[in-house]
Specification:
Elements: H1 21-35, E1 39-45, E2 50-55, E3 81-88, E4 94-103, E5 109-118, H2 120-133, H3 141-144, H4 148-162, H5 172-184, H6 193-201, H7 205-218
Antiparallel strand pairs: 1-2, 1-5, 3-4, 4-5
Helix pairs in contact: 4-6, 5-7, 6-7
């Protein structure tokens, strides 16, 4: 669907030292086209206190209307960029806005460029995703108490969540720290735990043992102390059959 943009009024060449109106308008139109239809872009003429141009006007304002900036004194602004700040559309939708004060060479404010982004649809999408990902009931521990694989998976998920990382983002030090966390949780005291951990981390059993040895040698435990009574894990060996 083509973007409906208001017709431009004739542009007079700026005086020496004045910001180029046409250049500012081109930048504003570029932003409006990129963020259409979620963003309204308004260029205010601070000399006339009127709207010089507006793109994607979902506020129903028009060029030439008062800017309604009487309560804002750009000369008092500490920074040329103001925001982001919150506004509301005529329909009550929440807007995330930001404004830029454009000054001439004498640092006198000449224009104010405002970008108003309707974030209501993003909020609706976030609520939808949050509702889909949420669970209505807590996990029943009795169902998984004997499921060693699930216990290890939950311990790994807890570590990744608390450290705001992912399995693919872990480097060597991160894998050592994760193994130390599992060791501190007592995961390695369980029979066949190494097989489950190696499969979960997509590592070989040998690599898991090497990481475990590194974590214990360096004392790199997530809790800062070894679990009392934790026994040293050694590679499993096949028992010789008696003849």
């Amino acid at each position: 669907m083509p973007i409906q943009l208001p017709k431009r009024r004739p542009i007079e060449l700026p005086a020496a030292g004045e910001p180029a109106w046409s250049a500012v308008a081109a930048i504003a139109e570029t932003i409006a086209r990129l963020l259409h239809p979620q963003a309204e872009v308004v260029l205010h003429d601070l000399a006339t206190r009127q709207i010089a141009q507006i793109w994607n006007p979902f506020s129903a304002r028009k060029p030439g209307e008062p800017s309604d900036l009487d309560d804002i004194d750009p000369e008092l602004a500490e920074d040329d960029v103001i925001g982001p700040y919150e506004k509301a559309s005529p329909k009550g939708a929440r807007l995330k806005s930001i404004s830029t004060i454009l000054r001439n060479q004498a640092r006198v404010p000449r224009y104010m460029l405002c970008i108003n982004v309707d974030v209501s649809q993003f909020e609706a999408a976030a609520r939808l995703l949050l509702g889909f990902a949420a669970t209505s009931e807590s996990r029943q521990d009795w169902m998984f108490r004997q499921d060693i694989r699930e216990q290890i998976n939950l311990q790994i998920a807890d570590y990744l969540k608390r450290h705001n990382t992912s399995m693919t983002a872990l480097d060597q030090a991160g894998r050592v720290a994760l193994i130390a966390h599992l060791d501190a949780c007592g995961a390695f005291q369980t029979r066949r735990a190494v097989d489950h951990i190696a499969a979960a981390l997509d590592l070989s059993r040998t690599t898991v043992y090497q990481l475990l040895r590194q974590s214990r040698d360096s004392g790199a435990r997530d809790s800062g102390a070894r679990v009392a009574g934790a026994r040293e894990v050694k590679p499993e060996t096949k028992r010789k059959k008696r003849k």
